[in-house]
Amino acid sequence: MAFKVVKPGLSTTIQDLGRPGYFHLGIPEGGAMDRFAMRVANMLVGNDEAEAGLEAVFMGPELSFEDDTLVAVTGGEMPILVDGEPRESWTSFVVKAGQVLSFGFLKSGARIYIAFGGGIATPSALGSRSTYPIGALGGVEGRAIAAGDVIPVGKATDMTERSLDKALLAPVETPVSLRVLPDLYWHRLTPASQAQFFADEWTVAPEADRMGYRFRGGAPMEFVARDQPFGAGSDPSNIVDGCYSYGSIQVPGGQEPIVLHRDAVSGGGYFTLGAVISADMDLIGQLQPNTKVRFVEVTMEQALAARTARRERLDKIRAALG
Amino acid sequence: MTDIVSPLPGTFYHKPDPNSAPFKSAGDTVAVGDTIGLIEVMKTFIEVKAEAEGTFADYVAPDASPVSAGDVLAKMG
């Protein structure tokens, strides 16, 4: 079983749920930017949720199939075509041998996820097939897919077509709210600057990628005056090197917040004012450049409740598609 | 009139760099595959190419402006 890449799209990578366990060595977790969409795509084709599929950002690929394959597309809204005929998103369908899967222009969201019955069967690296291009790890030779690649697919266990009731999806609100838990270096900002960060409307910068989502449009930050400690750089946004978590928000020079995402570095010398909660990280993976965003302060209790709500939503979908 | 639309979201530029002339001006001949502008996204510049031949009319999206996938960037006569 295999499919051939006719056109790769802008940057289409093989992703699964990631490779946890190596972040302390500087190797990021990686994996789908919207892991919810990747999980549901796998459920729709009868795969284990941890199987690898494709993540395509802003532009879909064009794929030619060598064998009958059960396929599902989730995530952002982008017209799906099989030999030019439309197909539904969040619904699995059979693509027959010789047919071509292609996509129209992106309508909303930023990334689509394509799952294949049997899962992509490229070699695993450190326990994951996820592509980490900077480290040349996973995927096809450690890179995004390219025209001419033949991607192997495992043997499908069943070819049952399934459809998700879209009422089970979380509604997307505009402007988008990203919930933030302030952290270790929050005290470096003045109280006025802390309040301003949550009051301002921010805009996704075009530089946003799998490493980090950069935001601009808010006021520059003001720091509490101090003598920089030994080992820290001279800018007030510098700290003695510290650890970064998935979702942490660094603000180099106090100018533009960057939310660290799946392919981010694990530490460095910029302060982090807090972290976007885990329940909202998939949402970031669906933000287009120029989208308006607000950051909303939450407590640890609220963050844990949001994580539970997200897990319960996935459980409902598992039950519905089981 | 044929529309040239943006294949993806990002920032649209008329020029290859700030000090150069725009890729096309009104009245220029456009061949299939000619670059008419650049889209910047994820620290990458993607060339927008004409998919039909004709005569360039004008840019619709301003230089250095944010665009969405499917937005009209330029018109051809």
Automatic annotation (TrEMBL), chain A:
Name the record gives this protein: Allophanate hydrolase
GO molecular function, one term: hydrolase activity
Matching InterPro entries: CT_A_B, Cyclophilin-like_dom_sf, PxpC
Native source species: Thioclava marina
Transferase found in the keyword field: no
Keywords noted in UniProt: ATP-binding, Hydrolase, Nucleotide-binding
Domain Carboxyltransferase per the UniProt entry, residue ranges: 24-314
SMART domains: AHS2
Superkingdom per UniProt: Bacteria
High-level lineage: Bacteria, Pseudomonadati, Pseudomonadota, Alphaproteobacteria, Rhodobacterales
UniProtKB/TrEMBL annotation, chain B:
Protein's name in the database: Biotin carboxyl carrier protein of acetyl-CoA carboxylase
InterPro entries cross-referenced by the UniProt entry: AcCoA_biotinCC, Biotin_BS, Biotin_lipoyl, Single_hybrid_motif
PROSITE patterns registered for this protein in UniProt: BIOTIN, BIOTINYL_LIPOYL
Lineage, broadest ranks: Bacteria, Pseudomonadati, Pseudomonadota, Alphaproteobacteria, Rhodobacterales
This protein's UniProt keywords: Biotin, Fatty acid biosynthesis, Fatty acid metabolism, Lipid biosynthesis, Lipid metabolism
Function description: This protein is a component of the acetyl coenzyme A carboxylase complex; first, biotin carboxylase catalyzes the carboxylation of the carrier protein and then the transcarboxylase transfers the carboxyl group to form malonyl-CoA.
Pfam families reported for this sequence: Biotin_lipoyl
SUPFAM superfamilies given in the database record: Single hybrid motif
Record pathway: Lipid metabolism; fatty acid biosynthesis
Superkingdom of the organism of origin: Bacteria
Domain Lipoyl-binding, residue spans: 1-77
